[in-house]
Structures are given as C-alpha cells and as structure tokens.
Design a protein that fits this description.
Layout (H helix, E strand, L loop, with lengths): L1 H18 L3 H17 L4 H24 L4
Helix pairs in contact: 1-2, 1-3, 2-3
Length: 71
C-alpha cells in the first residue's frame, strides 16, 4: 500500500502542477484503473493507496493554487 500511496502522491502532484484542470482526467484514469484491478481480484489495499495518494496530491496542489490566487 505504501509504495502505491507514494506513487499516487507523485502522480497527483505532477498532474495538478503541470496539467491543472486536465489533471482531473489523470485522477479519474487512476481511479478507473484501480477499480478495474480490484474487480479482477488484485490487492484492494494497493488500489486504496493509489486512489488516496492521487486524490491527496492533486487536491493539495489545487488548494495551494486556490489560496495563492492563481485560480
């Protein structure tokens, strides 16, 4: 779970920083991929870590941009 959480944080941060609103599509893609892996019988903990990491990373960048007045 921890490696996918860290990877998710990195993906969420980078997609929010460089792609801004298009990064939401990256977040949605990671969520869809994680759900499909769980439905195929893979680790639920890893999928939860990936989803939480991507959401936290992306939301963090968006909140910083919002509070700094960049949005």
């Amino acid at each position: 779970m921890i490696p996918l959480l860290v990877l998710g944080l990195a993906i969420g941060f980078l997609s929010g920083y460089f792609l801004l609103w298009w990064g939401a599509l990256v977040v949605l893609g990671v969520i869809v991929a994680a759900v499909s892996l769980v439905l195929r019988g893979r680790s639920r903990d890893g999928a939860t870590g990936a989803i939480a990491g991507v959401l936290l990373g992306y939301a963090g960048v968006i909140l910083v941009a919002l509070f700094r007045g960049a949005l």
